[in-house]
Structure formats: structure tokens, C-alpha cells
Design the sequence.
RNA sequence: GGUGAGGUGGCUGAGUGGUCGAAAGCAACGCUUUGCUAAAGCGUCGUAGUCCAAAAGGCUACCGAGGGUUCGAAUCCCUCCCUCACCGCCA
């Protein structure tokens, strides 16, 4: 959520920066400001009325304590009550309206974010490793079927299209990856492991900015109160919602494995093959809550933690930065990490690392006490996948394909696979 | 799911209709004094909104959340949420 004061003071600057998102937000900014003005005038009137009532009520109390009659004053102030009720109602409505409008405004892109209209304008920052050389690359779906690693048919049988059942050694590989990633981030990168619920209250979804705008992408319970987590970002970042954390506790680093549930409403028919886009998938997430002055350094570090995964697994990848037009709703700056999948002849996004600055913190009222100014200040929040599992899985089996048709997994995974890193029929 | 007890400021904890935004203690911050790893004294010390060009200051709201009664609610009533204890059910 943006600071309403910023909109009041620098409306044109806000509009300009939002315009870089390749969508028109100026009318929304104007709407917020109009409501803000109405709201403040209603509040001022309400405050005057309340002050008057408080004053008279005190007089009544004073008279009564002396045993005097206060009926006249009581009658006079009674009509005030109606005005107050009316005005309270109006001020409340306007406040709610203003909040709702503000919640639907995205974050300001960072000043240095590359300006562009869509993914084609995302600059490649760096590449690591080299593309493996395959004469006959094989698609992961074919490999999986041949080696009995997973079954889209079984997934469809019990849940529908877009769901997967991993089987045998294929299921073991999924579990191995979860353990490997959590071990890496907890022992090497300073994250605390958490294992949160997957059913999340509505206000948490608002806190990390999935709601109110993107409800159609989420799986919700029938009563609308709870949602299946679309990413561990939601439960994990919200662990600290409405807190004033001790400054000495920063930076806070959490990592969590969770399944992620997404309707993928806007992506019907896109990348639907195999493991690449599913309604439920596993992910290990990295979340940081940091001092505002540290957040951009933290973003570089966090991105490095995700990249380390691919380096340890020997997978070729590249890191790109999202241009302003491709940037997620709440993010000020985002790096995507894309792993090379030989069978797809394409890079697959396995991680999206973002700095939200104080955008989420303001929504969830997450602050720390600045020891110098003794003021409560909004923290900065970041998160990134470390990493998404299915696409990592795709890259692993397509890259590890051997001439005899088996798959050789990276040495690093051997111990997690019971010492045997070969997948064969 | 049932019964009972609770939810007050960073923490502990008083407060059952008016002068209570809230005693007291702890913690924190500042000053003073003394000085062998610290003590004592004094002072400051909630959050948010709003008014004023701004500071100073004023006003309003906030005692789990929402609603009600009343001239006036932390205090009385209703609903909900959460915590704790016991019981039931259960992986």
C-alpha cells in the first residue's frame, strides 16, 4: 500500500512512476485523493461534534455530582447524538473506501527499474554455466513416463487437469529436493525454517497483496474467509503482521517449504505441458524482513541464495531483471532466475526475487522501533523462490539424460536419494 | 463440539458508569551524584488520525473486534475472534 501522504504531496510524481507499469493509474490516484479530501472534512466535522459532546457531558457530570439538575443540558446534547451517529457512519465509509482504493494501487517501481512494456524488454543480467549439448533432447514428460517418475493421468483421475502424482523414485526425488533446499538455506544462508499452515485468513492475503485485486487467481473456501496459500510468501511474511519488532532482531530470514495452489485463471492453455504449470506445486520460499536501508543489499543476497541452488546442481541458468511493465503488483524491483531446460529448448522461470520495500509492511502494519528516532518505522519485506520445484525437476531430468535413456542426478543429491543418483526404468 | 476463566500501553498489572489515555512496577531514554564493573535521585516516555503554512499547541479516536444502552462506557448488554484449563471426539 502506498502512503497517502506521498500521494497528497507528490501526486504527479506518483502518477509518472506508476505509468511506467504500462497501465493507466492516474484516474485511480485522483480518485483516492478526492476521497481523502472528503474523508478528512468528514472527520474534522465529527471531531468537532465529539468535542462538543464531551464538553457538555463533563458539565452534566459536574452538575450531578453536586446534586443539581442537568435535564436541560441532557436534552440539548441528545440531538447531537444523531449528528454524531450520521457523521461517524459517513467518515467510516469514506475511510473504508479510501483504503480499498489504495489497496488496488500497485507499488511504485524502483527508480532504476528498466522501463519497458512487457517481458521482451527484460534485460539479462548474467548467465551461469553452459547449455548442455544434446543431439536428441527428450521432453520431461516422455522421460517421466518412460521411467515412471510421475503421472499426469493419475493427477487428472483424482483432481483434474493441472494436477500431478509423483510415483516411486520420482516421488523420492521431489522429497529429496525439498530437503536439499531447506538444508541449504538453513545451514548456509542463515534462514530459519518454518512450516506454516496452507489455509490462510483473508487479511493475510491482503497483507501480501494477493487480495483484493487477484481473488480470481486464488482457491478460496466457500465462506470466503480462508484461502489456499498461492505461495509460502503469504503465511510466512504474515507471521510478523501487526508487530513492532525489535530493531536488533532484523534482519529476519525465514525459509519454508509449502505446496502452492493457483487457479492460473489467466493462463489457460499456456505452458500446460507436464510439470511446467500446475494448479498445485511445491516450492521452497525465502522471506526476509529487513531494515529499510538494507533492503536492496538484501535483494542481491537473496537472489544469490536462490542462484546457489542451481549452481550446486550444475544447472545452466540466467538471471534477468523485470522491466517496469512486467513487474509484479507489489514489487518495486524483481529479479527472475530462469533455468535452462534442454527438452523444452527454453529457459524456465524457477525463482522471482522481489523487494517490496514498505508496500506489504504498510498493508500488514509490520514495523520496528527505530532506536535513534524512537519512532515506529515500517520494515521492508522481500521474498523469492528458493526455488520452485517442478521446473527445477524438469531441468534436472532433461539435463541429466544419459545416452542409455537413464537420468543421472547431480552428485549433490545422491545422499538425499539414498545414495543412488541414477533414475532408470 | 461442551463447560469455565480470561484478553488493558514494549512487558507485568490496577481499574465495575463521569475528573481514566488509563494507577503502580519493570524496561527504555535524558540529566545529576557517587564510583571497582553497578547503585541512587530527578525528569521524559503509547499509537493513529486531524486542525494550523509549519513548529508550539489544540482536538478526536483507540483498553481483543464489531454492534447496542446512556448526556457520558475500559467499566453494563449482545455477537464474534483469540488464549488458557478441564471434558468429549479424533490423526
Sequence:
Amino acid at each position: 500500500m502506498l502512503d497517502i501522504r506521498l500521494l497528497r504531496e507528490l501526486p504527479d510524481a506518483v502518477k509518472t512512476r506508476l505509468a511506467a507499469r504500462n497501465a493507466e493509474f492516474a484516474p485511480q490516484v485522483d480518485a483516492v485523493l478526492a476521497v481523502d479530501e472528503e474523508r478528512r472534512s468528514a472527520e474534522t466535522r465529527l471531531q468537532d461534534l465529539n468535542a462538543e459532546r464531551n464538553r457538555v457531558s463533563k458539565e452534566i457530570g459536574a452538575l450531578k455530582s453536586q446534586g443539581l439538575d442537568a435535564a436541560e443540558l441532557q436534552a440539548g446534547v441528545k440531538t447531537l447524538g444523531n449528528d454524531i451517529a450520521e457523521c461517524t457512519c459517513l467518515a467510516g465509509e469514506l475511510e473504508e473506501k479510501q483504503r480499498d482504493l489504495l489497496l488496488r494501487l500497485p507499488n511504485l517501481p524502483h527508480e532504476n527499474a528498466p522501463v519497458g512494456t512487457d517481458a521482451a524488454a527484460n534485460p539479462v543480467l548474467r548467465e551461469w554455466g553452459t547449455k548442455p549439448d544434446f543431439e536428441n533432447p527428450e521432453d520431461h514428460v516422455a522421460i517421466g513416463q518412460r521411467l515412471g517418475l510421475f503421472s499426469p493421468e493419475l493427477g487428472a483421475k483424482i483432481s483434474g487437469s493441472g494436477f500431478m502424482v509423483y510415483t516411486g523414485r520420482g516421488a523420492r526425488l521431489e522429497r529429496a529436493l525439498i530437503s536439499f533446499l531447506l538444508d541449504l538455506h538453513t545451514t548456509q544462508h542463515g534462514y530459519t525454517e518454518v512450516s506454516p499452515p496452507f489455509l490462510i485468513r483473508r487479511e493475510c492475503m491482503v497483507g501480501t497483496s494477493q487480495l483484493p485485486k487477484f481473488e480470481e487467481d486464488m482457491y478460496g473456501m466457500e465462506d470466503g474467509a480462508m484461502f489456499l496459500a498461492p505461495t509460502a510468501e503469504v503465511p510466512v511474511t504474515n507471521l510478523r503482521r501487526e508487530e513492532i519488532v525489535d530493531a536488533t532482531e532484523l534482519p529476519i530470514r525465514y525459509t519454508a517449504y509449502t505446496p502452492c495452489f493457483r487457479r492460473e485463471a489467466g493462463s489457460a492453455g499456456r505452458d500446460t505441458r507436464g510439470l511446467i504449470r500446475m494448479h498445485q506445486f511445491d516450492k521452497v520460499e525465502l522471506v526476509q524482513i529487513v531494515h529499510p536501508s538494507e533492503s536492496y543489499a538484501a535483494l542481491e543476497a537473496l537472489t544469490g541464495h536462490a542462484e546457489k541452488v542451481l549452481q550446486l546442481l550444475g544447472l545452466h541458468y540466467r538471471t534477468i531483471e523485470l522491466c517496469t511493465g512486467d513487474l509484479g503488483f507489489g514489487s518495486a524491483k524483481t529479479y527472475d532466475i530462469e533455468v535452462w531446460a534442454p527438452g523444452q529448448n527454453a529457459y524456465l522461470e524457477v525463482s522471482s526475487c522481489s523487494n517490496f520495500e514498505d508496500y506489504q509492511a504498510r498493508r500488514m502494519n509490520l514495523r520496528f522501533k527505530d532506536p535513534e528516532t524512537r519512532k515506529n518505522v515500517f520494515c521492508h519485506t522481500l521474498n523469492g523462490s528458493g526455488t520452485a520445484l517442478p521446473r527445477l525437476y524438469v531441468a534436472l531430468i532433461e539435463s541429466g539424460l544419459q545416452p542409455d535413456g537413464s537420468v543421472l542426478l547431480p552428485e549433490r543429491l545422491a545422499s538425499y536419494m539414498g545414495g543412488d543418483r541414477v533414475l532408470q526404468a
